[in-house]
Amino acid sequence: xxxxxxxxxxxxxxxxxxxxxxxxxxxxxxxxxxxxxxxxxxxxxxxxxxx
Length: 51
Known about the structure:
Blueprint: H1 3-6, H2 13-42, H3 47-50
């Protein structure tokens, strides 16, 4: 192993990790919103109540 590579950080990877984290967060939020909407509509609430 090269001493510079073993303990060093790659600053180019941080933006990619940040994008992936935001993508996961957005996907999870979307799934929760869709499931909450589905549960609300199945419970008898009208679309007007949600809006």
